[in-house]
Design goal:
The complex is a heterodimer of chains A (263) and B (357). By secondary structure, chain A is an all-alpha fold. Chain A is 80% helix and 0% strand. Chain B has 357 residues and is α+β, with helices and mostly antiparallel strands. Chain B contains 9 helices and 20 strands. The chains are: A mainly alpha (263), B alpha+beta (357).
């Protein structure tokens, strides 16, 4: 009895959580234009979506920004972690706290403050400003996922590498980097996901004429909801879902390394 | 004595205003097994790290083979270190770990392979080339760490409490292994430990340290039998340390009783400390003893009985294979040769206490 109740309860939670998305996904395959009735299965919204030049342009922008910003944030964040691990404990915890704040900060505040910053320094709004703001809000996520790996490191391994004659650079790339890699990878994927689905910050820092998928959907929806948007949202959801699954399995990446070695 | 390999000259080091080493001077000779022994915080690990190049001294110089290496970075020094927590590279196989130093020195592939085989044979782990460090036990990992260090043919091997994480049985086994390896390789070992038994078993020379000062340097026998001060006597093994008066050469007054001894040159009626090892106190019939007392505690320790005997207001620690029950009247006798006279601690400990403040 109790077991059955448990299962029903879990099922209810999942229905609540995922019913809206499932509805959206189902509607994206609905041949009828109205939401009220099922007109048969179709992929036409998907094909018209891919023929829409504006949307494709937004897609390219989104992917470019996501890749570049998460790469940049990964490099900056990892270097920051290396530096912080060499600091005294108190300085380090203060700095870690400071880097955590932007994650907790409301997106709208981050967005507006970045916008004001760009205005006061005379930046021209466009692709560049979106990229800069995405790098900014992505760095904390990288630090969040690299720092725990950094703390797990045996500090002697670096010294051992030096002791065996390695230069500081060699010691870092041969000994420290492979141990950090799982954290760096999951940090990169997390940053990529965050960049991919950001709307608010992008909205405030983009110029006229530049759009990412999320801002494009927003403008399209204002004109009236078209079924293409269901298809687009479904694609975004599935992409983010896949990335999240990747992120969650990445910490087990240690085994992958071993497998690669044996090949 | 063989050639001098390392000379630490007037080394001082403090961390955050706390003095860790104070004008330390130490010479290490070729092919010597030197142990730095002392309680935690005595500066022994700092000394080792200064030798390895991981910490630089505030003042003083480090000479290696006659060259000043004080400011030389660790990767340029002709020595290798075995770290406390093994510090193996977990993403590399055992063979890759051992080859690490040789690859950096750009040795040929066949040379590296020969060296890996040789090193694994030396540490009794043949056939482990393709294993990962995680799949090895603590003792095995430690042996790999040693193998990784010695393939580089250092002149000097530094070992930082390498057996600290192992259980007793394994530790004793590894002690013999280390002595065997050292004799086979003919290189100098500098070994850091807080375990006095380990130090006594393995070393040619023991350097007893406390609060940044060297308390005594000597062979294990000298350190054990002739401790120079109460700290050394207390740290190395169990002992009875009793304040006494040196009446004249070869005669000492311990607890209002005259004992014959063999030490000379302390002067007349001079306050001293006397060290008597518990196994050197003989328990006999009251009439035959130099002083008399009553057994107050008795513990069976396996090899011997440990007893405490109250005599003239001092609780004597006695190790004996004969058992005397609690409450029994006994006589105590000490062979003159086994009474070790020490000067009362003067400058050294005054300095040592000054740091505490």
């Amino acid at each position: 009895m109790r077991n059955a109740a448990r299962k029903v309860y879990i099922a209810l939670i999942f229905i609540f959580l995922y019913a809206p998305i499932v509805t959206l996904m189902v509607l994206s395959f609905n041949a009828s234009k109205t939401r009220a009735k099922w007109g048969g299965f179709t992929l036409k919204w998907y094909s018209s979506l891919f023929q829409n030049r504006d949307i494709m342009e937004a897609l390219v922008n989104t992917l470019l920004i996501a890749v570049i910003s998460s790469l940049a944030a990964t490099v900056i964040g990892t270097i920051a972690c290396v530096a912080m691990s060499g600091m005294k404990r108190r300085t380090r915890s203060v700095l870690l706290g400071v880097t955590n704040i932007p994650m907790l900060n409301a997106d709208i505040v981050t967005g507006i403050s970045l916008m004001l910053l760009f205005i006061s320094f005379g930046f021209r709004f466009g692709f560049g400003t979106i990229l800069l703001s995405h790098i900014t809000f992505n760095i904390p996520y990288v630090i969040l996922s690299v720092m725990p790996r950094m703390k797990q490191l045996n500090p002697s391994t670096y010294e051992a590498a030096l002791d065996l004659g390695a230069s500081h650079m060699t010691a870092f790339f041969k000994v420290i980097f492979p141990d950090l890699l799982p954290g760096i990878l999951s940090g990169f994927l997390m940053a990529f996901t965050m960049s991919l689905d950001d709307f608010i910050i992008t909205h405030f820092t983009k110029g006229a004429g530049v759009d990412t998928l999320s801002t494009k959907i927003y403008t399209e929806v204002k004109k009236g909801i078209k079924p293409e948007m269901y298809a687009l949202s479904t694609i975004i959801f599935v992409t983010v879902l896949l990335l999240l699954i990747l992120v969650n399995t990445a910490p087990g990446g240690k085994n992958d390394n071993k497998d690669n070695k044996e090949q | 004595m063989s050639k001098e390999l390392v000379y630490l000259e007037n080394i001082s080091k403090s961390f955050d205003g706390q003095m860790v080493l104070d004008e330390l001077n130490l010479k290490i000779h070729e092919n010597e097994f030197v142990t730095l022994l002392g309680p935690s915080g005595c500066g022994k690990t700092t000394t080792l790290r200064i030798l390895g190049g991981f910490t630089s001294p505030d003042t003083g110089r480090v000479f290696f083979d006659g060259q000043d290496i004080t400011n030389l970075s660790p990767n340029k020094r002709q020595l290798n270190t075995v770290f406390q927590k093994y510090a193996l590279f977990t993403h590399m196989t055992i063979a890759e770990n051992i080859a690490f130093g040789l690859k950096i020195k750009k040795k040929s592939k066949s040379y590296i392979n020969d060296k890996i085989k040789y090193a694994l044979k030396l540490v009794n782990l043949e056939g482990y080339e393709n294993r990962m460090p995680d799949s090895l036990s603590g003792g095995q990992q430690q042996r790999i760490a040693i193998a990784r260090a010695i393939v580089n043919e250092p002149k000097l091997l530094l070992l930082d409490e390498p057996l600290g994480a192992l259980d007793l049985k394994l530790r004793q086994e590894m002690q013999y292994e280390l002595i065997r390896m050292k004799n086979e390789l003919g290189i100098t070992f500098v070994y850091v430990t807080h375990d006095q038994e380990e130090a006594l078993t393995m070393s040619d020379t023991i350097v007893v340290m406390n609060q940044g000062y060297i308390q005594q340097i000597g062979s294990p026998e000298a350190i054990y039998n002739e401790p120079e001060n109460a700290f050394v006597a207390d740290f190395i093994g169990d002992s009875n340390i009793i304040p006494a008066i040196m009446i004249e050469d070869r005669l000492v007054n311990i607890l209002d009783t005259r004992f014959a001894c063999v030490d000379t040159g302390f002067g007349h009626n001079k306050p001293v400390d006397v060290v008597i090892r518990p196994e050197d106190v003989e328990l006999v019939e009251p009439s035959e003893g130099t002083i008399q007392g009553v057994v107050t505690h008795l513990i069976f320790k396996g090899v011997h009985y440990e007893m405490e005997v109250m005599a003239n207001g001092f609780e004597w620690l006695v190790h004996s294979t004969t058992m005397f029950p609690v409450g029994k009247q006994v006589g105590l006798r000490v062979d003159p040769f086994n009474i070790q006279i020490m000067n009362k601690p003067e400058s050294e400990d005054e300095e040592a206490t000054a740091i505490d403040i």
